[in-house]
């Protein structure tokens, strides 16, 4: 099979979809790998390293005619227009952000496997690129947030007196949130965390953080399919907002990570809450790509509001391209190898394959896409 890798052209994207280590594995499986010149330069992987691994350095036209394309970001309209009919694409893909391009996938009979839609099952753990990239984002958010603060993170006993530790609040204790908790604790901060899923309390406390629990009689409140969060009741939202508001005013750093798949991010931090925070405090909004958990967040901007720093940088994993590319490449290869195994065919009845495959040779294989297309008609 002829596999092609394009240089990512999305603004600020430094990652690459494949690393030399994975190319060697693909070649051992009798695949050919073609990669655009310079595709790995922002991840500090040279064309020479790719050549040594067995890849062919080539132009975009050669890659557009491959059997399979590996990407990180979904193809732009221009890329889709050049890509050949019946090609198979592996990439991150948020349906809600690609509505205007969905018809092209149908017209060109493209098969699309979304790294954003892999079911969260035990068998699929080594394919879960969302988790591997979120882990990086959570880690980096704590590091960057600490750099904005005008105070120490840890408790310090000095000759001049005792310095109290910084107070950090993590909103959302998924993969990114847990990574942020662990990093903030390693930096010596006092950490609190909140999540709509009561089941994560044990994980939060195991990392040394205090869990802010909204009391509710419904034990399944906020718990969606595959362990993801889901939208909560109005009563729960009010209780959560009150608890967050009371806590925020005491915090130095807030890291918000709450996301609901294929939905706008829930607003957890209102303008009034920000105005109640102490000047010099920081908000790292990891949900910025989906609109943000903070009402004032501006995507890919760092703003100062009444002395509060609000960082809306989308997809912080891009800022660590070396490890981010390595993990993504391994996740992608695990999915690719699982799908095709020893042949070029795949089992459509398989949960992982069926869940991640949004288009099958142009035929829609996803309920949300079907709903969107019907509304468009």
Give short descriptive properties of this protein.
377 residues, alpha/beta, Rossmann fold, 2 domains, eight-stranded mixed β-sheet, 34% helix
Structure commentary:
This protein is an alpha/beta fold and 377 residues long. It folds into two domains: 2-117 and 321-376, NAD(P)-binding Rossmann-like Domain (Rossmann fold), CATH 3.40.50; 136-314, Rossmann fold (3-Layer(aba) Sandwich), CATH 3.40.50. The chain has helices spanning 20-28, 47-52, 60-64, 77-82, 102-107, 129-148, 175-186, 201-206, 234-248, 271-276, 321-340, 351-356, 367-376, and strands spanning 2-5, 32-36, 56-58, 68-70, 88-91, 111-114, 156-158, 161-163, 167-171, 190-194, 210-212, 253-256, 282-285, 302-305, 308-311, 357-360, 363-364. The radius of gyration is 22 Å and the shape is globular. The model has no long low-confidence stretch (mean pLDDT 92). The strands form three sheets. It has an eight-stranded mixed sheet. It has a seven-stranded mixed sheet with strand order 11-10-9-12-13-15-14, with helices on both faces. A two-stranded antiparallel ribbon has the order 7-8. The longest helix has 20 residues, at 129-148. The chain is built from 13 helices and 17 strands.
């Amino acid at each position: 099979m002829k596999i092609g890798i394009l240089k990512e052209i999305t603004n600020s994207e430094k990652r690459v979809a494949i690393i030399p280590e994975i190319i060697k594995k693909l070649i051992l499986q009798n695949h050919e790998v073609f990669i655009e010149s310079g595709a790995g330069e922002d991840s500090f992987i040279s064309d020479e390293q790719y050549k040594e691994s067995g890849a062919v350095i080539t132009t975009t036209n050669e890659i557009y005619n491959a059997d399979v394309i590996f990407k990180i970001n979904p193809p732009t309209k221009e890329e889709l227009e050049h890509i050949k009919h019946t090609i198979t694409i592996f990439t991150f893909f948020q349906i809600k952000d690609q509505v205007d391009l969905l018809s092209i996938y149908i017209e060109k009979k493209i098969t699309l496997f979304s790294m954003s839609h892999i079911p969260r099952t035990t068998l699929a753990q080594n394919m879960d690129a969302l988790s591997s990239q979120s882990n990086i984002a959570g880690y980096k958010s704590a590091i960057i947030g600490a750099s904005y603060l005008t105070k120490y993170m840890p408790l310090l006993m000095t000759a001049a007196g005792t310095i109290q530790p910084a107070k950090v609040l993590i909103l959302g204790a998924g993969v990114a949130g847990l990574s942020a908790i662990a990093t903030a604790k390693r930096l010596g901060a006092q950490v609190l965390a909140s999540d709509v899923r009561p089941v994560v309390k044990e994980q939060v406390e195991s990392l040394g953080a205090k869990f802010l629990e909204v009391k509710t009689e419904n034990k399944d409140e906020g718990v969606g399919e595959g362990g993801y969060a889901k939208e909560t009741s109005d009563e729960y939202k009010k209780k959560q907002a009150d608890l967050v508001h009371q806590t925020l005013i005491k915090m130095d750093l807030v890291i918000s990570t709450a996301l609901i798949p294929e939905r706008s991010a829930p607003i957890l931090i209102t303008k009034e809450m920000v105005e109640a925070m102490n000047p010099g405090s920081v908000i790292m909004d990891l949900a910025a790509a989906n609109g943000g958990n903070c009402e004032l967040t501006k995507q890919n901007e760092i703003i100062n509001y009444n002395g509060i720093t609000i960082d809306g940088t989308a997809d912080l994993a891009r800022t660590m391209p070396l490890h981010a590319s390595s993990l993504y490449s391994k996740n992608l290869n695990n999915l690719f190898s699982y799908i095709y195994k020893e042949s070029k065919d795949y089992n459509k009845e398989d949960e992982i394959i069926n869940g991640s495959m949004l288009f099958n040779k142009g035929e829609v294989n996803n309920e949300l896409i079907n709903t969107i297309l019907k509304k468009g008609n």
